[in-house]
Amino acid sequence: MSRQHVQSMQLKDGIAWTGIHVDDVWKRKVRLLICHAMGAQPGFDLSQYYPRSKIDIIVKRILHMDMDAFFAAVEQKRRPDIIGKPVVIGGSGDPSKRGVVSTASYEARKFGIHSAMPLCTAYKLCPNAVFLPVDYEEYSRISGIIKDALRGITPILEDVGIDEAFLDISDVKGTSEEIASEIKKKVHAATGLTCSIGIAQNKLLAKIASDMKKPDGLTLIDEKDIADCIWPLTVRKLWGVGPKTEAHLKVLQINTIGDLAAQPIEALVEEFGTAYGSFLHSASRGIDDSELVTHWEPKSSSRETTFQTDIDNWQQIAKHLADLSREVSKDLKRSGYKGKTVTIKIRFSDFKTVTRAKTLEHATDVLEEIRKAAFDCLGRVELKGKKVRLIGVRAGNLEKADCAG
Asked: What is the crossing angle of helices 136-151 and 176-191, to 10°?
């Protein structure tokens, strides 16, 4: 890396060398090169002008690992006879009953089947698919094995779901390709499964990258790649853009991330508000300053169930409410938390949803207290003449059990 190269880089507010990936030795060299670019002597204290936290931004390598069709892959691994067949995981595994697709194998996706699709719709698209129930306990077990393997690469890991994670590999020795290869080998050796990996200077770009070459893919994105690799993608590929925002943007004739990046921030703020408009403006340009969250406290614990047929029998509703309260109580005790606010959710056959909440004098994980609060909430819901499709119980305002009064 020449001094001329250094001087050609954009220097502003902390030095935006987001595309350079170096190890600890090179960090020191980079800082010296910055000093040279500024015309400073070797002993110059750079931190007084550019704090170390800002300089470190230039050497970040964020890796996003996403398992390939995880639930379906686990089932295919333990049932070799369904390898190569369209596999749909969701609900009870019976497409004649209510439920949605949790995961579809790549063979099933060729028929247009995707996550969150009703099982009955998936069956119409591919009647010969293998439909299986969700085995969350087994998927969680395998997920734990995978996350342990990842922590063998670096302890700086953000667990963002049962089948994905972010890793900060800035200080991990080796090239990005070598680190990704090592992760793939570790995951496959431990589980027999494949994963796709994206590596970039921030979480936003790394997550987009991991989805580009599935399955078993590896994509590296640098700052210079944003225009060619990111901007042609549909806005839905942008992390943080859901179906409602996508529809809103289409009305504005904004279909790609590039279209979004071309919009002035004033227009986006006026249309979406200050916070979200500013986010869209930055994200469409590949800008993301969010840090990895390696630990967080849960905000709530909840359970819910959707009935196979809508019910209007109070005793049935009450039985399910009691069962859900029991599950929430067990979950709280297992996780070591207590909840102070109990909320129930009722969704009727017309999809209208109501919630009722009760705040207790003290946080609790005791079944009887949770159940009593849930039934107090139920008593404030008008059920006469209505059929119930879904019921749920949530404990919120959580506190550590050893700290709760």
From this structure: 140
pLDDT of 10 above 70: no
**Residue tagged 């853009």 (tokens):** 241
Instruction: Quote the tokens at residue 247.
Output: 């529809």
User: What is the Cα–Cα distance from 72 to 194, expressed in whole angstroms?
Assistant: 12
**What DSSP string runs through 105-127?**
-HHHHTTT--TT-BHHHHHHH-T
- Sketch out the chain's domains with CATH numbers: 3-59 (no CATH), 60-221 (3.30.70.270), 227-283 (1.10.150.20), 300-400 (3.30.1490.100)
Pick the catalytic residue from 75, 107, 158, 164: 164
Q: Taking all residues of the chain, what is their mean pLDDT, rounded to a whole number?
A: 87
Q: What six digits make up the tokens of 28?
A: 């020191």
Query: What's the sign of the alpha-carbon dihedral 148, 154, 158, 163?
Result: negative
pLDDT in tens, 79-89: 999 999 999 99
| Cα 304 → chain centroid | 21
Under 8 Å CB-to-CB from 265, ≥6 apart: which residues?
277, 278, 281
Catalytic site includes residue 164? yes
**Strand pairing of 195-200 and 157-161?**
unpaired
Q: Is 190 left (phi over 0), alpha (psi -120 to 50) or beta?
A: alpha
- Side chain identity, residue 296: W
Could you give phi then psi for residue 63, rounded to 5 degrees? -110, 130
Cα 286 from Cα 225, distance rounded (Å) = 10
- Residue by residue, DSSP assigns 175-228 as -HHHHHHHHHHHHHHHHS--EEEEEESSHHHHHHHHTTT-SS-EEE--GGGIII
The owner of tokens 């190890």 is: 23
**Helix, strand, or coil here: 15?**
coil
Q: What is the dihedral of CA 179, 198, 161, 107, to 10 degrees?
A: -110
Cα 270 to Cα 179, 250, 267, 274, 320, distances in angstroms: 43, 16, 5, 7, 45
Q: What are the tens digits of pLDDT across the range 340-393?
A: 999 999 999 999 999 999 999 999 999 999 999 999 999 999 999 999 999 999
Residues 12-43: pLDDT tens digits?
A: 333 333 334 444 444 444 554 554 454 544 44
The interaxial angle of helices 274-283 and 265-272, nearest 10 deg, is: 140
